[in-house]
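Reopening this ticket.

The earlier resolution said the output was attached, but the attachment link was broken on my side. Pasting everything inline this time so it's all in one place.
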Amino acid sequence: MKYNNIIEGKFISRPNRFIAYVEIDGKREVVHVKNTGRCKELLTNGARVLLEVSDNTERKTKYDLIAVYKGEALVNMDSQAPNKVALEFIRENCQDAKIKPEYTYGSSRIDICVNDKSLIEVKGVTLENNGIAMFPDAPTERGIKHINELIRAKNDGYESYILFVIQMKGVREFKPNYKTHREFGEALARAERAGVKILAYDCIVTKNSLKIDAPVSINLSED
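Inline output:
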């Protein structure tokens, strides 16, 4: 996926989940943060951030914060991007597939349905520690609900998948974040035992784009 009209700024603070203060050309601006997760290890004082300039003149905020430099590594933190790049990846690799985004199953909307038989829930990952990508960065009851629905779908004859889109390069493995939300990690391990396929892929991140790249090994153990 591509971005348009990207500029760089310097992160100042984040008063709530939806906005941040960023210094742009020496001026403090209010920007929209396209990720409601905590992202505390990314949005540190003085961090270099990338912003997309909105072409909607009626918006209250002119800029969307989409990525941040963690040292020299660039991390995409746009929470809408994982679904978009997942759809692009599926279309590139399954050109004749019938793809339905936002597919209703049970009481949930599963992110992607392929050929009326494969259900795929997509999770964006921005948390990394010593080369290990982890999810979630905050407790997610909604995430557990989706896992339980996918287990039920597997029992109903669907192929069920959970795809973790790691919005960076340079990680060696993916693990559930048991410290932040033990129940999610336990649910993920339970899903794997039930036959739900757990996948993780890293991404090529540039200032103007995001693209799914290579599979990442998965370690569902707590250790």
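Reporter confirms the inline version is readable. The longest helix spans residues 141-155. The radius of gyration is 18 Å.
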